[in-house]
Amino acid sequence: MKGNFPVEKFRTLETPFYYYDVDVLRKTLNIVKSEAEKYNFHLHYATKANTNPRILSIIREYGLGVDCVSGGEIKAALKAGFSRDKIVFAGVGKADWEINLGLDNDIFCFNAESVEELQVINELAWHKGKIASIALRINPEVNAHTHRHITTGLQENKFGINLSQLEEVLDLLPTLSNLKLIGIHFHIGSQITDLTSFKALCARFNDIQELLFRRHIILKHLNFGGGFGIDYEHPNHNAIPDFKSYFEIFHKHIKLQAGQQVHFEPGRSIVGQCGSLVSKVLYVKEGTSKKFVILDAGFTELIRPVLYSAYHKIENITSDETLETYDVVGPICESSDCFAKARDLNRTKRGDLYAIRSAGAYGEVMASQYNCRKLPEAYFSDLI
Length: 384
Ligand code: LLP
Known about the structure:
- 28% of the residues lie in helices and 23% in strands.
- With 384 residues, it is α/β, with parallel strands linked by helices.
- The chain folds into 2 domains: 7-17 and 273-380, Lyase, Ornithine Decarboxylase, Chain A, domain 1, CATH 2.40.37.10; 22-270, Alpha-Beta Barrel (TIM Barrel), CATH 3.20.20.
- The chain is elongated, with a radius of gyration of 22 Å.
- Ligand LLP binds at residues 46, 48-49, 67, 90, 150, 187, 190-191, 225-228, 265-269, 304, 308, 361-362.
């Protein structure tokens, strides 16, 4: 089964481009919202997954907050109309101007990742006569069982305050008078499909909460980050992630105190399945032992296959002919510019259109202009 695309319309557009199915996005938002509301969980969309202004404004309609990791993302979120008091600002290397931007906008919370960062936020807040709300990003040392480049919660990763440093940080905080500790934050990695990793995170959180109790600290805001994976193999059958099971894990396994609020930062699980990269076949080249389909899109438009060996389903949306086996590559002058090897696809000829699926997250946002290429356009199913 292939995706449902307005192929005749596509033929009139310059390729490559991103195509967003707004129905899929809206259905996903309705479900994630209703499943989270069952437990009064709060959602902050991780803007890094896709900052296309239209995508941001659709997500905003559903009342979500945002998780930003740069000053640029904060600006994009504000421009899209997200409310300042629903912005959380994470990131291991926040520059002074970015912290100042957050302070000037009185954002909801800075997720702080190191002792030095806490000291800098405190100092910058002092200069402005403000109190910055802080959540400590803790590295929980939980294995996310995902690609090593997108795992973040292990001791060897650069993210968060290590568990062994936590007491030291708690000792320091009372001396930083322009900070207010309101929460704790975790994010163990991305594209996590094995829910037991989240169960392990809940158990680790419960231990940390015990440690905090011993020091008479009860934090109001508990943020478990993002990371819930999508089904890259079956974007048509399984377009909407199983948010019910995901939230149930946290509901069942975290021990909450009265008044505590639980937050999440989903990125990929919200926007991943609504986007496809559409590309035209430039040439079909017979190699000595294989055939290559050469597309007009390359890793400049979608870098995930090259960077993480990521699988994306690929469809020839203009051919129903018998299957043949191809390597699907791009036009960039590097051998690594390959989307897939030995993929069975309908017999292909020059001018056919390909859809590379599940590209709504970390696709358009990670595009580059290498080889002096143009950044891709984006089209939306309801406006095309
Ligand atoms: N919160 C924090 C602190 C994060 O670092 C991330 C993602 C998220 C939330 C959202 O995670 P998600 O729900 O999207 O898994 N470019 C890579 C993914 C990098 C993820 C970085 N952090 C990829 O294409 O797979």
